[in-house]
Amino acid sequence: MLYIVGHTNPDTDSICSAIVLSYFMDGAPARLGKLNPETEFILKRFGIMEPELIKSAKGKELILIDHADKSQSLEDLDEGKLIGIIDHHKVGMTTSEPILFISKPLGSTATVIAELYFNNTMSFIGGKNKELKPDLAGLLLSAIISDTVLFKSPTTTETDKELAEKLAKIANIEDINKYGMELLKAKSSVGKMSPEEIISLDYKNFDFNGKKIGIGQVEVIDVSEVEAKKQLIYKALEEKFKEDYDLILFLITDIMKEGSEVLVVGNNEAFEKAFNTTLENNSTFLDGVMSRKKQIVPPLEKYYIK
């Protein structure tokens, strides 16, 4: 059985891309964790069931989407058969055999999938050139909006914007900005969540030169929802740090202000040197920083691999 699966602590792009790609590949969409509020909102909006939760790669054929790093995937990934990877992040793994691999510097994995569809090249990856239904177009559009933070993120490309317009027409969504604000409000509804739940909404592990680094992020319209819990969030990060980390960063991204407060646990020196800044009470605000992939990971990786 072929499974299409995203990363642990799945975000909207990871879930929606898995669902749509599985339709074209005649596979089964899967997830490696609980859905976040935004993704739940989207699936309900378009009447789509959530993907199956899987915990093991054993006996499965797999296409990984929205990640290319073993630290963000199934722990026993090597016990499955990796068929391919469709992604928009840096390459963080090697394989023992040739696989299908597509990774493009676009705002979301959903954009990569949409591009394959509109170019009639699904057959290139072993898929079928089926018609894209309105509900599935809505999922791809939602994932693009989510990952680009309604085109505010520096990862946004003209391709993201162009394909979003095409998808919106198929999905019968007349006003992308209006729909996008609905998504961002759902994304930032964290007031009732525990600190541990907030941290795990969008959390990824990285291996930089043998050092374990954790980077989490929450994107909010109303920062006050997180501000009241900031100290509790920091304590939860300190507990997580005991899991053999060298550094943990947690970004509280203010969508309206277009910047992020970063909470830092562990190797403060590494963070200060990587970003040429000074921490005050283990945190700092990085103006204009909204993307973990483009603005946080590269400076850290450069510091650790120097």
Describe this structure in a few short sentences.
This protein has 306 residues and is of the alpha/beta class. Helices cover 38% and strands 22% of the residues.
Task: Estimate percent helicity.
Answer: 25-40%
The biggest beta sheet reads: 6 strands, parallel
Which word captures the global form? globular
Flag low-confidence runs.
Answer: none
Number of strands: 11
Strand order of the largest sheet: 3-2-1-4-5-6
| Average residue pLDDT | 95
Tell me the distance between the termini.
42 Å
Strand content: 15-25%
Order of helices and strands: EHEHEEEEHHHHHEEHHEEHEH
Q: Which secondary-structure class do the elements indicate?
A: alpha/beta
List the main descriptive attributes of the protein structure presented here.
306 residues; alpha/beta; six-stranded parallel β-sheet
Question: Could you outline the blueprint of secondary structure elements for this entry?
Answer:
Layout: E1 2-8, H1 12-25, E2 28-32, H2 37-46, E3 52-53, E4 61-65, E5 81-87, E6 100-103, H3 109-118, H4 134-147, H5 158-171, H6 176-187, H7 195-200, E7 203-208, E8 211-220, H8 224-227, H9 230-241, E9 247-254, E10 259-266, H10 268-275, E11 283-287, H11 292-304
Parallel strand pairs: 1-2, 1-4, 2-3, 4-5, 5-6, 8-9
Antiparallel strand pairs: 7-8, 9-10, 10-11
Helix pairs in contact: 1-4, 2-6, 3-4, 3-5, 4-5, 10-11
Outline the structure in words.
The protein is an alpha/beta fold and 306 residues long. 38% of the residues lie in helices and 22% in strands. The chain contains eleven helices and eleven strands. A six-stranded parallel sheet has the order 3-2-1-4-5-6. Helix 1 links the parallel strand 1 (2-8) and strand 2 (28-32). Helix 2 (37-46) packs across helix 6 (176-187) and helix 4 runs antiparallel to helix 5 (158-171). The radius of gyration is 19 Å and the shape is globular. The termini are far apart. The mean pLDDT is 95.
